[in-house]
Amino acid sequence: MRLFLPNTPLKEIFLYAVFKLGWSEMDVIASAPGKVILVGEHFVVENEPAVALALELRAKVLARERKGEDRYYSRNFNKALTVRQGKIVQGGENIDLFRPLIRIAEIIREKAGEDSNFELIVDSEIPPASGMGSSAAVAVATVAALGKFYSLDLAREEISQIAYEAEKVVHGKPSGIDNTISTYGGAIVFRKSEGFIRLNVKLNDVVIILADSGIPRRTGDMVLKVKKLKEKYSEILDPLYHAAGHLAIETARALQEGDIVKIGELMNMNHGLLSAVGVSNLKLEELVFTARQAGAIGAKITGAGGGGSIVALAYREDSERIVSELEKIASRVFSLDIAEEGVKVHET
Ligand code: PMV
Fold it and tell me: pTM of the prediction?
């Protein structure tokens, strides 16, 4: 399947709400973009810098009033959970899916000092467990929707922070790059101990291609695997982490300067480093080399690896050829632009 998704204009979201969800004036809709880690995943967990781009695939969350109980519903999975006075009364088997959202509701309610009930409807364009930041985007959009529902005036920093608490429920100890890029949008260079800098990037001549291997994996498991290898071979891998940090800084610089060829070369190098820490496999290598042979400027694993997606950078005129080659071996291929806009509450 091939998807070319344009920017989602406000009108479309409004119509979507009216026709698909049964919008009323009391409803709040928020959305947040998915992401791709261009360079630096895994190394970012050990406080090296990494570069991430927000992508034009969004998670949308609607919050509305509900009498006497909270209801969580995912349109993607067609699964629901109902909680009445702190007790699950329906959909208990779906608890893992909604745990992060329950954590968000707890935090927001405490901040608001109010506990009226709500229904949350999640509808995301971002494929889950594919390295495209689906869980973070859902968390960020949920914080924004519930915050507005409870009349809180949350700053972006708070939205990102609360979403990070939800991410911890799923991923253990994530670096925080996913919730940050989804909140702020655009392109960022991120470092755990220092926060992030937004990069001024103009990538008009290129597109970001993502090819999903279709192999599911858990980010937390992959992070643990890499951590163990790093502990076992610290003398060998420490310098490699250091190199990854330099690589991310160089990539940020190349993005600001619009040096596309250099970005590609650095992506390819970064792929080698990710192979070295053990997160590649035959399918991911096949996808990476197919993209390069079809003309990508650079291609690498993105996100946790072990499955999930690869990212390729391509000149617009080459993208169709690359996409069609990847489509032969990937479960899904996306050709996307950077999303300048981060989290957004859609005023109704
Ligand atoms: O594959 P994803 O989207 O879950 O990204 C994981 C990125 C890691 O660097 C491997 C982990 C992290 O917390 O940053």
Answer: 0.90
